[in-house]
């Protein structure tokens, strides 16, 4: 092979690796471009604009199931507002997350940091949470509408803040918003449809009761009257396409180390376009969309497909998507079973036989132990282990929640006799046994054997 041919191969291999890197970032990095829900987006944009430009105080909740685009909507609105000089120079955005800020003290401390009030605090020592909160609120309330900086509070996983003691933070934020002493907007994001019922009466009375709902797959208000699946097909082509020119625009700065040859990019994009016209591919994507309309889930799936690209596999075939889908939707419990030790899997099989023989009656450790010991004694190749080791394996299965305890928390019995409900199906065990690496033949046969 000539030197020129070797260089051509190296160039092509390098382009494939850069393509994989570029597309993974493009698929997995959060976007601020928002599709659909135009009316809801305009509503939130108007609320935040009025807070920044007119000094109004507002509060609202953005409610919708996970993956429907709530956070993306907020990010797109904030990005649009950041282009306004009044917003960029004057407004403050405070982001709080219920999974991170698990109590009001943590939330208040991070609020102080994000509002850049550390210098105002200085060497002051606050004896109690109430004193610290009072000082922060005075900073918020200082001045009038024309002098105070507008502050936008984004509370992600809003329902978790409702679990904080006395809901002190929520009460005071809503109180400031209602009294209009300082221009603030409190915007909660949650997937709980009943979130209003989680608020205490005194908090609820200070909330505006403005609720904005998002639903997945809702294309109402779109600029183009296309079907929801047509939009998914366009998203498929967009996420798998490469830049086909040498210029990198502002939104592509994060891809500077993934410069793609324009000619290669053009050929790649033509091929991706041909996939969107392939009826087998289209029907496959349509079935996927009917089962799950979540864009986040779709992006995760595409990231898995892109991982199959390599020097030896330089092109995405329809079969790559089909195979990735099998793995992507694999039963979590089956994967858990495949990660167990042989002893633990044997105990699972013993539980299966026990529940089949006794018509799904609850089981305990002694029952499972007796059935496992009987099997081990009948098969000389199965290594005998001591009772404490078997108990530890049983407890690991319990901790993985593959069995569920029967009886209330006040039930006091020895752990060997605690009853459990077996929560696995026959097919799940069969699939795990089939794909378990180097599983002893006796165990495989025991798993599929008749009742014993």
List keywords for this structure.
single chain; 452 residues; alpha/beta; Rossmann fold; Arc Repressor Mutant, subunit A; five-stranded parallel beta sheet; ATP binding; ORC4; DNA-binding; ATPase_AAA_core
Query: Main β-sheet, in a few words?
Result: 5 strands, parallel
CATH superfamily of the largest domain: P-loop containing nucleotide triphosphate hydrolases
Which structural class best describes the helix and strand composition?
A: alpha/beta
The gyration radius over C-alpha positions equals: 29 Å
CATH C-level class of the largest domain is Alpha Beta
Q: Number of helix segments? A: 21
Low-confidence stretches: 221-226, 246-251
The main sheet orders its strands as 2-3-4-1-5
Basic shape: flat
How much strand content do the residues show? 5-15%
Q: What order do the helices and strands follow? A: HHEHHEHHHEHHEHEHHHHHHHHHEEHH
Termini Cα gap: 65 Å
């Amino acid at each position: 092979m000539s030197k020129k041919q070797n260089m051509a191969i190296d160039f092509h291999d390098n382009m494939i690796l850069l393509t994989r890197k570029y597309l993974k970032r493009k698929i997995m990095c959060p976007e601020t471009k928002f599709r659909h829900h135009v009316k809801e987006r305009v509503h939130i944009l108007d609320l935040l604009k009025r807070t920044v430009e007119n000094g109004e105080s507002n509060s609202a909740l953005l409610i919708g199931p996970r993956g429907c685009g709530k956070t993306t909507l907020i990010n797109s609105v904030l990005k649009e507002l950041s282009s306004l000089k009044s917003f960029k120079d004057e407004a403050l955005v405070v982001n709080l997350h219920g999974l991170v800020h698990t109590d009001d003290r943590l939330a208040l401390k991070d609020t102080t940091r994000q509002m850049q009030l550390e210098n105002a605090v200085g060497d002051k020592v606050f004896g109690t949470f109430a004193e610290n909160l009072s000082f922060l609120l005075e900073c918020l309330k200082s001045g009038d509408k024309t002098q105070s900086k507008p502050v936008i509070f984004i509370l992600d996983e809003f329902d978790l803040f409702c679990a904080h003691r006395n809901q002190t933070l929520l009460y005071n934020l809503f109180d400031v918003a209602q009294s209009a002493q300082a221009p603030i907007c409190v915007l909660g994001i949650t997937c709980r449809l009943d979130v209003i019922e989680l608020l205490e009466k005194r908090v609820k009375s200070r909330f505006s009761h403005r609720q904005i709902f998002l639903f997945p797959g809702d294309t109402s208000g779109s600029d183009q009257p296309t079907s929801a699946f047509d939009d998914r097909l366009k998203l498929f082509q967009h996420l798998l396409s490469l830049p086909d020119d040498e210029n990198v625009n502002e939104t592509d700065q994060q891809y500077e180390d993934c410069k793609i040859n324009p000619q290669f990019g053009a050929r790649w994009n033509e091929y991706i376009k041909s996939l969107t016209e392939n009826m087998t591919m289209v029907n496959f994507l349509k079935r996927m969309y009917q089962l799950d309309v979540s864009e986040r889930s779709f992006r995760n799936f595409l990231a898995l497909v892109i991982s199959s690209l390599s020097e030896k596999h330089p092109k995405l075939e329809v079969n790559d998507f089909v195979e990735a889908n099998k793995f992507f939707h694999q039963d979590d419990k089956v994967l858990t079973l495949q990660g167990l030790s042989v002893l633990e899997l044997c105990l699972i099989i013993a539980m299966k036989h026990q529940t089949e023989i006794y018509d799904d009656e609850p089981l305990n450790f002694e029952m499972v132990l007796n059935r496992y010991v009987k099997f081990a004694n009948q098969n000389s190749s199965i290594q005998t282990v001591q009772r404490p080791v078997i108990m530890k394996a049983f407890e690991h299965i319990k901790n993985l929640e593959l069995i569920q305890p029967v009886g209330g928390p006040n039930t006091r019995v020895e752990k060997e006799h605690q009853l459990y409900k077996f929560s696995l199906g026959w097919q799940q065990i069969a699939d795990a046994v089939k794909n378990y690496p180097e599983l002893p033949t006796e165990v495989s046969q025991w798993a599929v054997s008749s009742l014993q």
